[in-house]
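Subject: design request, 229 residues
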């Protein structure tokens, strides 16, 4: 099945909504540091890998063009949310408001961290989609599991390599950063592997429902070709 359409389906719209919700939720959850098996991590680990799983599903079913639209849509909605949070955080509280510190802790995202987050997200997401697309062409659609896992390793690896140095250089001891980045990539990849059976079933059902299984032959991978579906 090879089909390209300059429109989106209801299922793609639902995937897009979930993708945006995951990105926005990750921003809020990132403000809490959690301890898991003795490791210090951020709460965003609970939801952020889901965005990569959705990215894999969209790229597998609808192709890189739709994944590119998804990524930029997620970026725009996340930027909108963060901007509103920053504006509200900067506004003076009401005389009876006593929770400025708590609100600031959640929504007062430092410009440096926000910039690092946006750059890392775009880079990691597009690398994930690119690897997924190219491997599908080269494998003639076989080995979805390997493609999903490897694309996550490359995407999450790039995300961590960019985000942590940009966001925390000079804040976290330099010798702690490599271990933190490695653990993030490993745990997010393990996350992907654990839910892989569910991902496979979802992809199969969506392909059957949509009647699509796009191969990106001749695709222009320019990330700014936003309207080229």
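Subject: RE: design request

Done. Sequence follows.
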């Amino acid at each position: 099945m090879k089909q390209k359409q300059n429109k989106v389906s209801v299922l793609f719209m639902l995937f897009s909504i979930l993708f945006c919700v995951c990105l926005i939720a990750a921003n809020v959850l990132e403000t809490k540091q959690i301890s898991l098996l003795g490791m210090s991590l951020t709460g965003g680990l609970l939801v952020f890998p889901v965005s990569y799983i959705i990215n894999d599903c969209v790229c597998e079913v609808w192709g890189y063009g739709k994944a590119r639209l998804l990524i930029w849509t997620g970026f725009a909605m996340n930027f909108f949310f963060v901007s509103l949070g920053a504006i509200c955080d900067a506004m003076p509280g009401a005389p009876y408001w006593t929770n400025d510190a708590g609100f600031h802790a959640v929504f007062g995202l430092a410009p440096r961290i926000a910039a690092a987050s946006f750059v890392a997200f775009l880079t990691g997401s597009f690398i994930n989609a690119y690897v997924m697309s190219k491997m599908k062409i080269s494998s003639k659609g076989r080995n979805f599991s390997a493609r999903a896992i490897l694309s996550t390793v490359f995407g999450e690896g790039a995300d961590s390599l960019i985000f942590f140095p940009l966001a925390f250089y000079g804040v976290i001891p330099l010798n702690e950063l490599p271990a933190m980045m490695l653990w993030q990539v490993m745990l997010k990849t393990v996350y992907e592997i654990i839910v892989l059976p569910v991902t496979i079933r979802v992809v199969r059902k969506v392909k059957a429902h949509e009647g699509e299984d796009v191969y990106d032959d001749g695709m222009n991978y320019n990330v700014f070709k936003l309207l080229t579906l």
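Helices lie at 10-29, 48-62, 64-90, 100-107, 111-138, 144-168, 177-194, 196-210.
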